[in-house]
Amino acid sequence: MIGYPFIQQLFGNVLKKSKGIQGRFHFCPKHGVEINSDQLGEVLKEAGSPVQGRKYPLVLMMPPRSQGHFTNPEGNWEKYRGVLFFLNTTYYTGNNQVNAPNAATGTSMHTVPQDWHDMKRCGENFLRVLDKLQKDKDLVQSTFRLGSEEKMFDPVSFVGTDRASGVRLDFTFSLFSGCNLEDYNPDDIDSITIPVADPHPEHKL
Question: How many helices (H) and strands (E) does the chain have?
């Protein structure tokens, strides 16, 4: 059965090849609270991302929701909803102008709309690579399918203590989760006792 670790590795492997993101990708079990930490660089290192002195641009993935039937004896395609944030740091001068680079990294001379634009380009390229991989490697028949519906980008600004700006990407994809009963033995299932009646005693309410 494939699931969350597969998603993390697949998306991480794609983003390692991104010239903009350079592998700075992190699953967010705390639903994005990680970006409020002054130790975000350490968080990324622990996630195996090649930070190399820079934290941004980066991609944060929220815990993906999933739905499916899960009872098909021939195997199941499980549908996931992915929410990814493509973010870059937004910097300020003393006059609160969004046009000065960070003194330590010197990575941004951009306005917020320019960060939206650049991060949206990274998100679009990410989707295009996923689509190319699923076709070129024939994943659509066995493992991974990118949703065919329209994807949604929402601009976001001044997120977290680093005041990052970029885009939120909402999209769907499916994984083939298999059909094996990994946690049960057939003999154990046959031995399960079905109650003959409600065990809760009748009493005055």
Answer: 4, 7
Q: For residue 68, how many other CB atoms are within 10 A of its CB?
A: 14
b/e for 142-168, b at 16 or more Cβ within 10 A? eebbbeeeeeebeebeebbebebbbbb
User: Where do the structural domains in the chain lie, given as residue ranges?
Assistant: 4-190
The tokens describing 152, both together, are 């949604």
The Cα–Cα gap between 37 and 131 comes to: 33
pLDDT in tens, the chain (205 residues): 788 999 999 999 999 999 999 998 988 877 666 666 555 555 555 555 555 567 788 899 988 999 988 877 777 899 999 999 999 887 654 444 444 555 555 555 678 898 899 999 999 999 999 999 999 999 998 899 999 999 999 998 887 777 788 999 999 999 998 777 778 888 888 898 888 888 777 888 7
